[in-house]
Specification:
Structural class of chain B: alpha+beta
Number of strands of chain A: 5
Strand order of the largest sheet of chain A: 2-1-5-3-4
Number of strands of chain B: 8
Order of helices and strands of chain B: HEHEEEHEEHEE
Order of helices and strands of chain A: EHEHEEE
Largest sheet of chain B: 8 strands, mixed
Number of helices of chain B: 4
Oligomer: heterodimer
Strand content of chain A: 15-25%
Distance between the termini of chain B: 34 Å
Helix content of chain A: 10-25%
Chain lengths: ~80, ~150
């Protein structure tokens, strides 16, 4: 499963795109990321599924685009 | 329906928004004589001090596909909420120096109340919902990741 990382999070992972084990739901992905990158616990990260912000827990299908995002700073 | 509302838009651009571009945008609306009021918001990179060192520039990056989708959702919401003639949004990517413009929001309508409210709505929505990040680069080359705070 391909997962995208942006801004400060790509610095933590060392890459803007990682191949992570499939985990079925966005809640499980969130847990997996925090387990692998404990520094992200203090970053109030958000997930996006197919370029939409994840609200609640959502199922992940094969081929979905997942992204992990730090708080925004536009403007 | 005004065609300006439906044509595809690309908001993100490399580098700062130039004052000449802002001026040309104003001039290009003179033919739209149904408009009675414009508001313009310009976001300028501020020379904050971080641990005693001045911020020289912000380097912006984005999740571009999602950012453009969010800009387009925000545009549609503004058109649904307020009676507007047209609106334009431009946001920088890459390096923008202190004193340069990184965000240009331009809202036009028949009357002032609509443009004041819509402009404020748009800027708040952009800051809260568009996946853009910025590194504040200080004079010695070190940097801090910027985070938007609620007003």
């Amino acid at each position: 499963m391909k997962v995208l990382f942006f801004g400060p999070l790509a610095e933590i992972t060392g890459s803007s795109q990682l191949e992570l084990e499939s985990c079925g739901t966005t809640d499980k992905l969130y847990e997996l990321i925090l387990r692998q990158y404990p520094e992200m616990k203090n970053k109030s990260i958000k997930l996006a599924l197919n370029q939409e912000l994840v609200a609640g827990n959502m199922n992940i299908q094969a081929g979905d685009e997942l992204a992990v995002m730090a708080p925004f700073a536009g403007g | 329906m005004n065609s300006a509302k439906t044509k595809p838009h690309t908001v993100l651009q490399q580098g700062p928004v130039s004052p000449d571009f802002v001026s040309a945008s104003i001039a290009s609306h003179s033919a739209k004589t149904g408009i009675g009021a414009h508001t313009i918001f310009l976001g300028q990179v501020r020379k904050d001090e971080i641990q005693g060192k001045p911020v020289e520039a912000i380097e912006y990056t984005a999740y571009p596909e999602m950012a453009e989708k969010e800009f387009s959702r925000i545009r549609e919401e503004a058109f649904a909420k307020y009676e507007l003639s047209c609106l334009h949004i431009h946001h920088s990517l890459g390096l923008v120096k202190a004193g340069e413009i990184s965000l240009f929001v331009f809202v036009s309508a028949k009357h002032r109340k609509q443009v004041f409210e819509a402009c404020s709505f748009l800027v708040e929505q952009i800051k809260a919902h568009v996946p853009i990040w910025g590194k504040e680069i200080t004079s010695d080359g070190s940097y801090t990741w910027k985070e938007n705070k609620p007003v």
